[in-house]
């Protein structure tokens, strides 16, 4: 599947973006990037962090780690010790964040493994020789269609003989043989 072409990483002038659709796209990408960096800073350095953003449409977005309550309480009262309740919430939130990060790492590793596997399978699929049975019927030439009909006729005859061997000439063989004739006739009519 071909990838979408993008502008990639380009240096852009730092000024207000005038086109509304570009402004929304940039806001969304940069907001997600900012939250990702905040999460990394919190995880790697063990810091408490809080970010509150309002879009141009006054939609609020926020990121807090470990919890909004603990970050705001520490900001309002930096010298006051945290309450037992806030400390317990913080411990639980940090443990949950650790679990989520472990799961995220596992998922990202699996995604990378699947991407590598997909590359190998794509390479195998692009280099292997295709069998005639994998071609659409519409792409077959008249000669190929005749070869298929001949092959099916041979198969039909071999099946008929095998049925005769199994039934030792019993009367039901003609019914089975007639059923096979109808099957192959209907198949060839659909193909042509």
Q: In DSSP terms, counting alpha (H) and pi (I) runs of 4 or more, how many helices?
A: 5
Rg, Cα atoms, Å: 34 Å
First CA to last CA: what distance? Answer: 33 Å
Give the overall average pLDDT: 83
**Biggest sheet layout:** 2 strands, antiparallel
State the share of residues found in helices, binned by percent.
55-70%
| Low-pLDDT windows of residues | none
Could you describe the 3D structure shown?
This protein has 192 residues and is mainly alpha-helical. It is built from five helices and two strands, in the order H-E-E-H-H-H-H. The chain has a two-stranded antiparallel ribbon. Strand 1 and strand 2 form a beta hairpin. The longest helix is centred in the middle third of the chain and has 44 residues. It starts with 19 loop residues before the first helix and ends with a helix. The relative contact order is 0.04.
Précis, in short:
With 192 residues, this protein is mainly alpha-helical.
Helix and strand arrangement:
Layout: H1 20-45, E1 49-54, E2 60-65, H2 68-76, H3 84-127, H4 142-167, H5 172-191
Antiparallel strand pairs: 1-2
Helix pairs in contact: 4-5
Can you give keywords for this protein?
192 residues, mainly alpha, two-stranded antiparallel sheet, 5 helices
């Amino acid at each position: 599947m071909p990838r979408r072409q993008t502008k990639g990483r380009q240096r852009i002038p730092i000024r207000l973006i005038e086109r509304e659709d570009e402004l929304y796209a940039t806001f969304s990408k940069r907001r997600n990037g900012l939250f990702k960096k905040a999460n990394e800073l919190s995880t790697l350095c063990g810091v408490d962090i809080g970010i509150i953003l309002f879009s141009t449409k006054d939609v609020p977005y926020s990121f807090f780690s470990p919890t909004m309550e603990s970050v705001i309480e520490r900001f309002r009262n930096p010298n006051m010790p945290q309450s037992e309740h806030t400390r317990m919430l913080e411990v639980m939130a940090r443990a949950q964040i650790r679990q989520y990060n472990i799961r995220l790492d596992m998922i990202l590793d699996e995604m990378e493994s699947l991407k590598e596997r997909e590359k190998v399978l794509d390479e195998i699929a692009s280099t292997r020789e295709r069998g005639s049975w994998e071609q659409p019927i519409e792409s077959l030439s008249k000669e190929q269609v005749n070869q298929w009909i001949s092959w099916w006729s041979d198969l039909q005859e071999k099946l008929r003989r095998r049925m005769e061997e199994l039934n030792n000439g019993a009367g039901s063989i003609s019914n089975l043989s007639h059923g096979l004739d109808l099957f192959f006739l209907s198949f060839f009519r659909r193909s042509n």
